[in-house]
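Title: [Solved] Aspartic proteinase 36 isoform X2 3D structure

Original question kept below for reference.
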Amino acid sequence: MFLAPVAHIAATIRIQDSRFQPEMSSTYQPVKCNPSCNCDDEQKQCTYHRRYAEMSSSSGVLGEDLVSFGNESELMPQRAVFGCENVETGDLYNQRADGIMGLGRGRLSIMDQLVDKGVIGDSFSLCYGGMDVDGGAMVLGKIAPPPDMVFSHSDPFRSPYYNIEMKEIHVAGKRLELPDGAFDGRHGTVLDSGTTYAYFRRDAFAAFRDAILSAVHFLKRIPGPDPNYNDICFTGAGRDVSQLPKIFPQVEMVFNNGKKLLLSPENYLFRHSKASGAYCLGIFPNSESTTLLGGIVVRNTLVTYDRSNDRIGFLNTNCSELRRRVQFSGAPAPTPLVSPSKDTKMEIPSVLSPSGSPSNVLPGSFHVGFITFDMSISTTDSNFKSILKELTELISEELEVDNSQIRLLNVTSQEKDYLVRWGIFPAEPANYISNTIARSIILRLRDHRIQLPERFGNYKLMEWNAEPQRKLTSWQHRFLIMLVGSVTTLILSLSAIGIWLVHRQRQQTAYEPVGASIPERYLQPLQS
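Solution (posted by the thread starter after getting help):
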């Protein structure tokens, strides 16, 4: 959650409600500079900076205060760390919302903070209003899924984003003719509530576009509202959204498990802002292989992000009736947060710090002592060891840990190929790495998301391993103390003996006076 402080001028931030004033809050505390964050110029307070896919940005300082969740929630106010914004650019400056609520995977996500406190279950749900319906709802905590909710597996280790397994798309009952894996790019099919529209890889977009155009060939094509974009728009469908299913085709998303999610026209169309009764296609081509599903796809759809079970559920519903259709389960919190919103556009960071993983990978009782990973590097640099320091700094930046936590453990080489083993250790004075940070590191390693400049040559992450924190038993503690004491005594004894022997040797040594004659047997002639 990012709130705007009062101390900055309106030119850097545009808000609708009153600004947050840290100096007026008796419970506010700044997050002091520490090894796990970026610091301000005075090295006193943690700062943040986030840049998003549409190139807008938000920056400010980190603070901690009591966060409340509205009058409709029985969830008590909780202390939480948040970004106190002082500069924003792009769409963040122009949007109606006052800030961002981070629901992704990461230690600063409000979800992770509340789950770590044990006040809600590891799940949340979003329900956006339809094309002509303002508002929506958000549920923090677990709900009992309705029997007709369809689920897709979501793999937190495959991608730092919330992903689903989409196999194919049907338009008007016909499957789009695409190769297998068309929706199975590097990150899978990504579900991002902070993105407005949807983006398919180019061949999938072309197939979808052609299928829609074929189904509504009787509608007139018109230019889009923005001349800078080649939008695909139609007129002649009328203003009544409820009549669109009679004109535009039904679309189905088919998951790998065979379950289907029905999409109505409002899930792939948006209103033309300059022509009455006109609509435009809200699906666009993506230059990358990733399929990205934004908020338009889940209008009037309850989406449950069941993080504890690695799945995402979908239910077509009227979001205004959400209270009557779902039941809330504690696990551990008995009451979730449901808060209405007047803005259907919620901005979520497109680059998130992952921290989710199956519970059997890093269970709560498992403390990570350190993490090791091997990296193979092929380079033409003849002085490889000279770049290791810079390499350490780059890796610490990519993994978002302090430089002092990265240690070089071993280097082996064969000609120009090097195998380097690195270790990631707890930040001082901690003696273990928190599960949140460990999961974030492991996800980045697993997804091969360390990006190095080209001058380092070809590189590949080979394997990683998380070692548990080593805790000494009571007898091991006593043994260690006895061992340290014995070694200390031995060193002192040897030092005393050494000093005594040196002193005795000096007393027994006879020194010749300066200028005394040297016996002839010690004089040797020089060889010519």
